[in-house]
Amino acid sequence: MERREFLGSIGSPVLAACAVCMAACSKSGSSGTANTGASANFTINLSTSLLTVGSSLVQSGVIVVRLAASNVPASFTAVQVNCTHEGTSVNYNSSQNNFVCPNHGSTFTTSGAVTLGPAVTALKQYNISISGTTMTVTG
Ligand code: FES
């Protein structure tokens, strides 16, 4: 069988499968897609949440962490929870005082700056204000 005859005999199903595969592969480049943080505006009751240093919670796409004991904005940080590489939720690592993505290992400072790739874009950091025991996160 000649090459041309062989290619003609396998026909369009194989070509269609290749087209699907190539389309899928083109979406998973190693550089990933930048995920940007969404807008947020919510409150947290500090008399019942984030009571201990190193504790964290996730709300509205934002991870909020208590870094120090007193109820002032500098004692907390709030950044987007989705990694800027491919969107996996990052975790706060209290022993390293940073955010770590469990998917490909990117790390970020508590203010969201990249310290280790493959992520290249910082996590969005949100504004924190506190009145009494009510924290408001906006951005
Ligand atoms: S999704 Fe790849 S490092 Fe976070």
Explain this structure to me?
The chain has one helix at residues 3-26; strands at 41-45, 56-59, 62-66, 76-80, 91-93, 98-100, 107-108, 114-116, 127-131, 134-138. With 139 residues, it is an alpha+beta fold. It folds into 2 domains: 1-30, no CATH class; 41-138, 3-layer Sandwich (Rieske Iron-sulfur Protein). A 4-stranded antiparallel beta sheet has the order 5-6-7-8, with no helix packed on it. The model is unreliable at 3-32 (pLDDT under 50). Bound molecules: FE2/S2 (inorganic) cluster. FE2/S2 (inorganic) cluster binds next to loops.
In short:
With 139 residues, this protein is an alpha+beta fold.
- The count of β-strands is 10
How many structural domains in the coordinates? 2
The CATH topology assignment of the largest domain is Rieske Iron-sulfur Protein
Helical run tally: 1
Write out the strand line-up for the largest beta sheet, numbering strands in chain order.
5-6-7-8
Classified in CATH, the superfamily of the largest domain is Rieske [2Fe-2S] iron-sulphur domain
Task: Provide the helix percentage.
Answer: 10-25%
How would you classify the quaternary structure? single chain
User: What do the pLDDT scores average to?
Assistant: 83
Q: Ranges with pLDDT <50 over ≥5 residues?
A: 3-32
Characterize the main sheet.
4 strands, antiparallel
The ordered H/E elements are: HEEEEEEEEEE
